TrEMBL record:
<dbReference type="InterPro" id="IPR017853">
    <property type="entry name" value="GH"/>
</dbReference>
<feature type="domain" description="Fibronectin type III-like">
    <location>
        <begin position="663"/>
        <end position="733"/>
    </location>
</feature>
<dbReference type="InterPro" id="IPR001764">
    <property type="entry name" value="Glyco_hydro_3_N"/>
</dbReference>
<dbReference type="InterPro" id="IPR013783">
    <property type="entry name" value="Ig-like_fold"/>
</dbReference>
<dbReference type="Pfam" id="PF00933">
    <property type="entry name" value="Glyco_hydro_3"/>
</dbReference>
<feature type="signal peptide">
    <location>
        <begin position="1"/>
        <end position="25"/>
    </location>
</feature>
<dbReference type="InterPro" id="IPR044993">
    <property type="entry name" value="BXL"/>
</dbReference>
<dbReference type="InterPro" id="IPR002772">
    <property type="entry name" value="Glyco_hydro_3_C"/>
</dbReference>
<dbReference type="GO" id="GO:0031222">
    <property type="term" value="P:arabinan catabolic process"/>
</dbReference>
<dbReference type="Pfam" id="PF01915">
    <property type="entry name" value="Glyco_hydro_3_C"/>
</dbReference>
<keyword id="KW-0378">Hydrolase</keyword>
<protein>
    <recommendedName>
        <fullName>Fibronectin type III-like domain-containing protein</fullName>
    </recommendedName>
</protein>
<dbReference type="InterPro" id="IPR026891">
    <property type="entry name" value="Fn3-like"/>
</dbReference>
<dbReference type="GO" id="GO:0046556">
    <property type="term" value="F:alpha-L-arabinofuranosidase activity"/>
</dbReference>
<comment type="similarity">
    <text>Belongs to the glycosyl hydrolase 3 family.</text>
</comment>
<dbReference type="GO" id="GO:0045493">
    <property type="term" value="P:xylan catabolic process"/>
</dbReference>
<dbReference type="GO" id="GO:0009044">
    <property type="term" value="F:xylan 1,4-beta-xylosidase activity"/>
</dbReference>
Amino acid sequence: MGTRGLILSSALLLLLLAQPLLVFAATPPFACDPANPSTPTFGFCQKTLPVDKRANDLISRLTLEEKIQQLGDIAPAIPRLGLPNYKWWSEALHGVSGWGRGIRFNGTITAATSFPQVILSAASFNPDLWYRIGQAIGVEARAINNVGQAEGLTFWSPNVNIFRDPRWGRGQETPGEDPLTASKYAVAFVRGLQGDSPTGERRSEQLMTSACCKHYTAYDLENWKGNSRFTFNALVSTRKSSAFLLPQPHGSYVRSSSAQRFVSCSVNLIYGAIGYAKSPEEAVADVLKSGMDLECGDFVQKHGGSAVKQGILSQGDIDRALFNILSLRIRLGHFNGNPLQLPAGDIPPSQVCSKEHQDLALEAAKDGIVLLKNAANLLPLAKSKVTSLGVIGPNANVGYQLMGNYNGPPCKGITPLGELRNYVGDTRFEQGCNDVACNATAINAVIQLARSVDQVVVFMGLDQDQERESLDRIDLVLPGLQDKIITKAAKYAKRPIVLVLLTGGPVDITFAKNDPRMGAILWAGYPGESGALAIAQVLFGEHNPGGRLPVTWYPQEFTRVPMTDMRMRADPATGYPGRSYRFYTGKPVYEFGHGISFTSYSYEFEAEAVTSIYLNTSLAPRATADSDILSYDIASLGSDTCRYLKFSATVGVKNQGSMAGKHPVLLFSRWSSSEHGRPLKQLVGFQSVHLEAGESTRVVFPLSPCEHLSRAIDDGTRVLDKGSHYLVVGQKEHEIRFIS
């Protein structure tokens, strides 16, 4: 692997841009104080100068040692220039977090709104919601900064890796397994977090905060059977990479919203555990020459000077990296003087944990919850008919189980058990298992409770002791004896039970899916600080669930596939089943996009929809290198032809039921066959609509065949196949033929 390939595949990606610093209880540190007589002589302090000139002026004033020390995540102060220290590493995956170094909850502000873990928010398939979550987090981060509790406003979020393997411990942090969803999530969240408009227009020369999309392509393994994320050599072909993380054209969505920068947290590994570099100095030279701007760590700070002395690293390489990170700090407002006099300087502490943000957290949790099963319309429950409620399970009465990882201290906390007691006065509880691992049970107590109440709700699933950073799962079934507890409760209950699953990754619950005594199943992810209320509102019909699974739920037999097998496409010759809804040929427990409702929706393609597209081009279709299918090379078609081919598909959607609801409309495309490695189908668009009972609407999907209907062949080239393509929504299909 070339040096640049190594560095980029061992780096956190995409450092974006941001806005100013401010004050309330304590003034946050800032540079370019007007009271300092030197300030007028510093070009980097002159707000009227372009960012590039200011950055270059500051670089010109730094010594070599000062330059090198700015390249770690803790950048020390430079008193002679009036520069305070800066801590680059902060986290805001689904709320401002205390993980990292830049944020403290030890003063006026002691908590921040904890939104649902990303995998649940993704299930809403609603970019507007994702944008508003990012926007709220950005505002709260500024408020924390304004009271002097932040030493940095660069957040290493979101995580937009593809959730390739269901056992991955960090899959919960991602928007799921689909590249289009991941890229649209990244754009919406980043624009909100940084203070841009939903369409990307800059609302200020300074941004609210800075986002950093992570991680490197094909990262989706922590520590599986001795294979560590730090040293595992993920071999991914050109074709496979096009089916991985943000493949073209979907990656353009992310690039359009970001000023891309590179951050690495593994420079020491390049010399140490990986052994690619022969010395620490060589490792530092490799990463900086390959485009890294900043290290999460201090390896560069320790060895950069000696790398220069050895002649393998130039000041030009250092200055290139410095230019990028100092330009970012200028855009954050760090060199614009008194933070109180800058944009966002008036955001008060009351904006943290505000009612608006807590309502948004509740909305996000409700919109993400997925109703997997509802036999005989068991749900919603009627308060008048449930006079006694039995709540069972280790996930029912532990508030932190609702948060997921990379969470901050929440504004409020109530467990599902506590919230359900607000709905049914006679609510009784039995934990059933000693904890989520469930290696010790109280079966008799579970049976007794199940027999004694009108309705049983069981809370099972996973927690951060089962899946998290540094911990992958071995199995896809529920931990320990959870299935035994569920089955016993269902056997002895007076009526079919409700099963609520709190998990990040998918679980094989075939036993519950097929058991008529388990009448309803909800997946609630890790729903955040308002998750308990969201679950209760769904159970009792105050909210009509509309979430749809952003990942395939595989059967336990999938664990025969090594996590280290990076292939996406199925291989019938060897029995390899493939991965994700695009290529998996096995029978899933629940498929990507599954989710039902308390109502039903119907679809119809517009009668005058496009049926044939003529390629008025002198370019003749050719058989691809990997098949006899006649196809057009996208690059050869050119941008003008691709623009000419664009069209819109319009789908009529009607709420056929008696209850209003939000409903994500998912539009897929498929080919006439999945031979020669073509996907079974792929998502080409989605929109969330709200429909009253009986209401109809039209949903328009703008489509570009060169982007949405193309595929990758063996060498990674994208091609558009001649002949029939099918647009699919629900059970409805619409054929489109490409004719030369």
